[in-house]
Request: fold
Amino acid sequence: MSFTQHLEHTRKEFFPFILPEIATTVTICTDATQFATEVGRIYDRVFPESERSFTTPPERREAVGRLRGQRDGTHREYLLLRDSQASAVGWLTGEMEDHETFYVRTVGIAPEYRHTGIPERFYPHFLEYLKALGYERVTSQHHPNNRAIIILQLRAGFSIEGFNIDERWGPQVKMVRYLHGDREAEFHRRFWLPEYSRSH
Reply:
């Protein structure tokens, strides 16, 4: 049985889900346009303007819209760093996390190339590439003791977004790099810490 068949079969088992005591039914909507229309009817009541999250400015929505069509995860990148003999000495791989975010899955550089300045020169170029594709943000996760990559990313303008514990990889620091100044400003607005008085 394919995943699609399994999905359809399981959906039929679980939905519609009826809550008779409050005369409500939960259904699956498989049409994205219909879903957007239905949600649009109640969105302003659910999220008043004061509670809304950051909205991509109109001049960047077309680029983000192109990425939205790739939400099935088809956009992946496999980059190889090669030496003068065309032998691989490093790599970067990642994929779309959501329609605004590119997730850098792994980066590796052979020891003899780590202190050559290549990572510091390549990373800004790669971020500009993702920005040109229409991404708004870039994320990655690293073990807290992987100081080299964390410092590299902090110098490249990344911020620490969170921390999680994964049974596969252990503790992970999640980092994010905003590709536009207005998103960076929104990050600081939401997580701003007041300066403490120096008189105490």
Notes: The chain is about 35% helix and 30% strand. The radius of gyration is 22 Å. Residues 3-52 form one domain.
